[in-house]
Amino acid sequence: MHPAPLLSVRGLTVSYRRAGQCTTALAGADLDLPVGGRLALIGESGSGKSTLAMAVCGLLPDSAELTGHIAFPALPGNPVLGRDIGVVFQAPGGSLNPVLTIGEQIAEVLVVHRGLGWRAAKAEAIRLLGRMQIPDPAGSVRAYAHQFSGGQRQRIALAAALAASPALLVADEPTSALDSVVQGELVRLLDALVREEGLSLLFISHDIALASDLADQVAVLRGGMLVEAGPAAAVLGAPAHPYTRALIATRLDLDTPPAARLAEIDPVDFSVFRPPARTHG
Asked: Are 151 and 181 in contact (CB under 8 A)?
């Protein structure tokens, strides 16, 4: 008997209605994320990755119409955002409050979700900043978000997301606004933190290399449809769906001589292809 997954999504469809027109952003997605598992959602911009992630977090706008089923079978009750689910967004500048010190923002999570007093919460915030490799953590708690670099702000956002020791960390393209060196540093830190804390990770990216480094499971989305899912090695090593193959072909390898023409992704007729079922082990 398989243990209950942390996250189970069945038939998830998200639509938006505007001026009498209905646009489907996600159509009938099914996926499971095991306790301690790492699942990467990959695909082009607009493929439905962030829509799926925000639906899981309960962060869709009021204009969204959601059908299907989202459950957390391994949790004892309904998950609470900030306590059971931590979120790191693409742009840390937008998720950090500019008028509060970073210490106040991290401490607030600890006070609300872990019941700490403000003094104890501040001490824990200093510890978390040190773990995120922020210079001078004791002094940094008194600083504001604009006083840090983009990479440091993303580490601060990660500290706030992990402060309450959530069961699930949702990272929505957390490295896309960073340069390649800072990106690599953040990915290594994220990998270590997820491993040490035993977290489940839902990682959203259009970067296949990052997905293969961080995740043991991959789900590929295009045009709001989940076209292929399974173990990362199987999906990325021997993709079954033509879109997955096309997506992998667009990667540029610096060791390979340039081709006369870059690979392009052609429209795919999903009606003529149904990917074979893969095991989720």
From this structure: no
